[in-house]
Amino acid sequence: MEINRYEKILVDIANEIVGFLINQGVEKSDAQDIMQDVFVKLLQTDIILTPDKLRPWLYRVALSRFYDIYRRQKRYRDILLEQYGQYSEVEPILADYSSLQRALGQLNDYQRALIILHYDDRKRINAIAAIYNVSESKIKVDLYRTRKQLKHMMMGYENE
């Protein structure tokens, strides 16, 4: 196999894995760092995998690295909370969501569904557009108008 073709396969798979990691919630820079670590590991192992074995190996190593980073960050957070949480004098602020609930109740079903799909279910604009079979720009405009309407209604409830 030609080196250039093998490199192109590696780059294509790397871009695919970076996209996969970003879809899993990893920041773009972290996903690129993970992929760089995977390449370093590939070079250090000094093996040449066939293209049919390359993709699964790269995915497995990238996911292992991602899980390691996630566990480390979780452990650091737990240690900080354990050690310094007792010194915190700041009381958690419990937000009053009654005005939001009232405002959401005033919206029509379509507007409420847009807000819930986008913010609660964390659906992307293109996924919502596919659900309603409309253009992405229509969803963006409708979300903007709905947010503006919600803000206006909530400010009216707070002034009561």
Automatic annotation (TrEMBL):
Residue ranges of every copy of the RNA polymerase sigma factor 70 region 4 type domain listed in the record: 99-150
Membrane-spanning intervals of the chain: none
Location of the RNA polymerase sigma-70 region domain: 28-75
SUPFAM superfamilies in the cross-refs: Sigma2 domain of RNA polymerase sigma factors, Sigma3 and sigma4 domains of RNA polymerase sigma factors
InterPro entries: RNA_pol_sigma-70-like, RNA_pol_sigma-70_dom, RNA_pol_sigma70_r2, RNA_pol_sigma70_r4_t2, RNA_pol_sigma_r2, RNA_pol_sigma_r3/r4-like, WH-like_DNA-bd_sf
Family named by the database record: Belongs to the sigma-70 factor family. ECF subfamily.
Protein name: RNA polymerase sigma-70 factor, ECF family
The species this protein was found in: Leuconostoc kimchii (strain IMSNU 11154 / KCTC 2386 / IH25)
Species lineage: Bacteria, Bacillati, Bacillota, Bacilli, Lactobacillales
